[in-house]
Give the backbone structure.
Amino acid sequence: MSADALYDLAGKGVWVAGHGGMVGNAISRRLAAEPLGELITATSAEVDLRRQAATEAFVSDVRPDAIVLAAAKVGGIEANRTRQADFLYDNLMIAANVVEAAQRSGVERVLLLGSSCVYPREAPQPIRESSLLTGPLEPTNEGYAIAKIAALELGKMYRRQHGLDAISLMPTNLYGPHDNYDPVSSHVMAALIRKAHEARVAGAAQMVVWGTGTPRREFLHVDDLAEASVVALRHYTGEEHLNVGCGEDVEIRQLAATICRVVGFEGELVFDTSKPDGMPRKLLDVTRVSELGWQPRISLEEGIADAYRWFLDNVAESG
Ligand code: GFB
């Protein structure tokens, strides 16, 4: 794996597909520090990436040198469990259309973003990249996982057959500014920050945590993922995907307690076991991405405080 920059971003036109979402926003902010020729963005109203003709017309018109595919339909465990067809279709079409359009327009680099949910439910922990496709998936997010596996394989096969320089990152659970704080479709970090805040403001005696609280999750602040994305764009090529995580995980009930401490909620946690736990654990082995010289910089507690500040400034009804 090369340690010297193999791709120079200077002067390049880089399209961040999905720039408005949490990941796309973080990568766009990080890329603003690079001497790009142009940072290209397009809203989903301007181009619906689920539509092949619209996607190909946009790419052939704009002709980016590089594409960061951060556009996706994402959600937490409940959204994934109850809308598997939407998660499979939208993410499959987005990946297929963008990869094919990139190939047709001679795009130099394509960075695809997957998820740790692509790995088997019972994968040995920490999960190595080689665990992919070695066992049954977690049922609650099978649709999303299959779409993300297909995206990863598209990149690999377009590289082999057409020479498309596509690379894939598999990030762990992400959180931070511009996260989705909807109570039903959000991921756990945003959901519990909102619940702890609303419980504190309301003077409630308790707040509800879904599941048993015993699953373990690894969390990476989205700004650390943005840095990993730029490092990979500049320094990595190859058909193997790279895990991106912080290398340690916490029990959901530990996470809830930390969030309550940061938010200042001192009530009880109540566990709603009618809600699913999902994968028992999904800690990533991050040996390979660290060989690029990337390390996460934002600790969990700092990151939660940062996410809560963003929530207060942009979502909360009252402080
Ligand atoms: O973050 P999360 O929704 O998704 O849930 P996954 C993580 C864990 O937190 C589960 C628990 O065990 C949840 O039951 N949890 C506790 C909560 N309270 C809450 C709550 O109020 N809201 C939510 N959402 N969870 C997702 C996949 O799995 O991971 C996606 O479904 C994607 O496809 C994402 O891969 C990264 O980590 O279980």
The pocket of GFB is lined by residues 76-78, 80, 115, 117, 140-141, 144, 173, 186-188, 191-192, 209-211, 215, 217, 252, 275-279 (CB under 6 Å).
